[in-house]
Amino acid sequence: MSVADKSRKKSGGLGETVSVIVQALLLALVIRTLLFQPFSIPSGSMRPTLLEGDYLFVTKWAYGYSRYSLPFSPPIFSGRIWGSEPERGDVVVFKFPPNPSLDYIKRVIGLPGDRIQVREGQLYINDAPVEREKVGEIDNPDITEMTRPVDVYRETLPNGISYETLDLSPNSVGDNTREFVVPEGHYFMMGDNRDNSTDSRFSVGFVPAENLVGRANIIFFSIAGGVSPLEIWKWPTEIRPTRFFTWVD
User: Fold this and answer.
1) Number of Cβ within a 10 Å radius of residue 220
2) Does Hydrolase appear among the keywords (predicted)?
3) For 113-132, what is the HEC assignment?
């Protein structure tokens, strides 16, 4: 084989490698943009449903697509295409309205036109109390972030969606609110950790439909204590295997 043939062979091999890498990157981009996006839970605002250190997949097609479905959120169009309404009770990743560079995750409580209020810790939708019953206490700091037992309540929304909430304090600032009237094209979000959640009761405000990124579906990995999943040597004591591949309710 001549030197020229060897050079062409090496060049062809390098070109094929680059082509495979580019195709893989494009495929990953399509999957992340149109199908699934991984998301990690950075705070305790959705405890006990989601814990800090949970890693989950967000379904991107659930509500259609907006510019926030794309990497870096380029303003190439407004609104949503192939859009559909979230259901009351969905756990949703969305862009923080005052600063869309930040991702938030909360539960959809109020739909357009709803009147939402909290009175003495009781959630009201359109002036009707949401079914709420105490189901016990949790005395596990990994779940509650507290060194004492915490009351747990089960809420059941009008459409039958049911989930647990934490009550860290009986008289917190979010236990009594004004009435919020959800504007058209917006949603009212709340965290399940009611006394430790920055949500639509506070600085989040009403969330525009355009800001929805996707619906949280399944936890695929979970690790405690703020440990990076790359710290494999800590897995034996810090991972939460019972949370692997569990659906988000």
Assistant:
1) 14
2) yes
3) CCEEEEECCEEEECCEECEE
Q: Which residues pair with 164 in a beta bridge?
A: 154
Q: Cα(23)–Cα(109) distance, rounded to whole angstroms?
A: 41
How far from each other are the two terminal CA atoms of the chain, in whole angstroms? 64
Tokens of 5: 């043939």
Q: What is the pLDDT of residues 103-119, one digit of tens each?
A: 999 999 999 999 999 99
Q: What is the mean pLDDT of residues 162-190?
A: 96
Q: Active-site residue 84, yes or no?
A: no
Find the mean pLDDT for residues 10-37. 64
Question: Catalytic: which of 45, 69, 200, 222?
Answer: 45
> Is pLDDT of 28 > 70?
no
Quick one: fold of 38-247?
Umud Fragment, subunit A (2.10.109)
Beta bridge partners of 223: 239
pLDDT reported for residue 4: 47
Task: Select the more confidently predicted residue: 244 or 13.
Answer: 244
Active-site residue, from 69, 106, 197, 200: 106
d(CA 169, CA 175): 9
Distance CA 51, CA 44 (A): 6
Q: How many CB atoms lie within 10 A of CB 105?
A: 25
**Model-level pTM greater than 0.90?**
no
